[in-house]
Amino acid sequence: MISFLLALAAQAAGASSTTPESCAAAAKATPEQAIETANAWRLRGGALDARQCLGLAYVQLGRWVPAATAFQQAAGEAETSKSPRRAEFWVQSGNAWLAAKDPAKARRAFDAALAAGIASPELQGEAYLDRARALVALGDAAGGRADLDKGLALVPGDPFGWYLSAALAQREGNLARAKTDIEKAVAGAPDDADILLLAGNVAGLSGELDEARGFFTRAARAAPDAPSGKAAAAALAANSQPEAPSQAK
Questions:
Q1: Spatial separation of the C-alpha atoms in residues 72 and 106, rounded to whole Å
Q2: Distance of CA 99 to the CA centre of its chain
Q3: What pLDDT score was predicted for residue 8?
Q4: Whole-model pTM?
Q5: How far apart are CA 100 and CA 149, in angstroms?
Q6: Angle at CA 179, nearest 5°, toward 175 and 181?
Q7: At residue 244, what are phi and psi to the nearest 5 degrees?
Q8: Are 201 and 186 in contact (CB under 8 A)?
Q9: What is d(CA 200, CA 127) in angstroms, rounded to the nearest whole number?
Q10: What number of other Cβ atoms are within 10 A of residue 41's Cβ?
């Protein structure tokens, strides 16, 4: 009995000493253990911080639906208590739903984030960029373009935002816009393989073959084992092969 009580006391002490910082660090280092810590903390009054920590642990494990649900529950509690952090939780939930390939739920989360009245222009801009991803995935290219432009007006220094804008412009056949936007993305993240691969594709479609090869080379070197790096290497190999001689008739 004494050992059982000591175990309970130790567990309670561990939960009571949990902080947002310590739980977030645990979520990154030992996510399975962090799930247990976060759940125990939540039962002992950890509230929003415990739910957010739980979501972060699930993210680290790639368990996107439980992560989205944990963030969504945190957002719901934050809405009830009128916490200024509610938009932050909605954005985290939306991104987890996107990773779970559920753009409809992601859009609803981003709608809620933007409706919450975000004080930070940076977070508002990122919410617009993220909602644009959901809208494009749902087939609403026009809505996605409108949100991208709103987001980039608020966070013009985000290279990923310019990458998204360039990708949508390429899809729409607007190569001039795609070229302008991908140049801004490359300037902001010159070693990002995804950005460099798209820059190579845009240059190739624009007829600038030497520039395209340069971007593909940089992408392949930046991330040789990543899908974008492998795609860039394949593009280089395909474009380095001599054309087959025409058959005489």
A1: 10
A2: 8
A3: 33
A4: 0.85
A5: 25
A6: 115
A7: -70, 140
A8: no
A9: 28
A10: 26
Torsion of CA 182, 183, 189, 193, to 10 degrees: 50
Q: What percent of the chain has pLDDT over 90?
A: 76
Tokens of 68: 């989205």
Q: Tell me: the pLDDT tens digits for 80-129?
A: 988 989 999 999 999 999 999 999 999 999 999 999 987 789 999 999 99
Per-residue burial over 171-192, b if 16 or more Cβ lie within 10 Å, else e, is: eeeebebbbebbebbbebbeeb
The Cα 150–Cα 158 span in angstroms is 13
Q: Give the chain's length.
A: 249
Count CB-CB contacts under 10 A for residue 216: 27
Alpha helix ranges (H) inside 82-158: 86-99, 103-115, 121-137, 141-154
Most confidently modeled of 19-33, 112-126, 216-230? 216-230
Note the pLDDT of residue 178.
98
Distance, in Å, from the CA atom of 140 to the CA atom of 150, rounded to the nearest integer, reads: 16
Q: What is the DSSP-derived secondary structure letter of residue 1?
A: -
34, 63 Cβ separation under 8 angstroms:
no
Tell me, rounded to whole angstroms, the distance of Cα 122 from its chain centroid.
15
